[in-house]
Amino acid sequence: MLPLFLTSNGLYEDDVFIELLKVIKDHKIQKKICFITTAIRKSDRAFHQDKTKNLFNKAGFKIVDFIDIEVDDPSKLREYPIVCIFGGDPFFLLGQLRGNGAIEIIRELREKGHFIVGHSSGAAVLGKSISHAQLLHPEWNTINLVDLEGIGLIDGVILPHSNRYTKSEGLIKEYLEKNQYNIIRINDYKYEIV
C-alpha cells in the first residue's frame, strides 16, 4: 500500500514539493492528479487552482484537475492515481465528504493503491476524527456538524499547524488521554509520510 503524504500548508514550499515528487517517482506513480477544493473559500479557489496547476505542470504533470464534491460527482476521483484533499474549513469538508459518498470512494482508492495527499484540513479529515478541531476551534463549526468521525485512513488524529497550538498543549494532552488517540503533529511548512 502506498504511503499517505500529509502537509500543513507546504505544497508551495520547495522542500515539501520536492519530497512529494520524490515519493511519486520512487513509487512510479503516473503524474495525473485531482485536487478536492471543497474546503477552500470560493473567493480563494481561482488563486489556488492557478498556482497549483502551474506548479504541477512545471513538474511534468500532464493532467492537473480540480473537483468540488459539493457539486461534482466524487466517483470521478477513481480516474486519478493521485488525489489531494486541499485544506480550508474542516467541518464543511467533512460534512460534504460524508454527504455524497466520497468517504467510501477515498477509502476504496486507498485500498486499490491510489496515492492520497492531505493538505491542512484535508490531512486532518484522513484521521479517525476531527473532534480535536471542535475542541480547539468550536467557532469554526458554523454548520453544527455533530458526527466528527474522519475518513479513518490513519489510526489516530492529525493536527496540522501544530506549532500554532503550544499554548493549548495541556488541553490537547487531556483530549488524547481521554479519547485514547495517537496524534500526528505537522508543523507549518512541513510534511509527514505515513
Structure description:
By secondary structure, this protein is α/β, with parallel strands linked by helices. It has one domain: Rossmann fold. It is 37% helix and 17% strand. The chain has seven helices and eight strands, in the order βαβαββααβααβαββ. The strands form two sheets. The chain has a six-stranded mixed β-sheet with strand order 3-2-4-5-1-8, with helices on both faces. Strands 6-7 form a two-stranded parallel ribbon. β6, α7 and β7 form a beta-alpha-beta unit. It is globular and about 45 Å long. It starts with a strand and ends with a strand. 37% of the residues are buried.
Features:
194 residues, alpha/beta, Rossmann fold, 6-stranded mixed β-sheet, two-stranded parallel sheet, 7 helices, 8 strands, globular
Secondary structure elements and pairings:
Elements (H helix, E strand, L loop, with lengths): L4 E3 L6 H13 L5 E5 L5 H17 L4 E5 L14 E4 L4 H10 L2 H10 L3 E5 L1 H4 L6 H6 L20 E4 L8 H11 L3 E4 L4 E3 L1
Parallel strand pairs: 1-5, 2-3, 2-4, 4-5, 6-7
Antiparallel strand pairs: 1-8
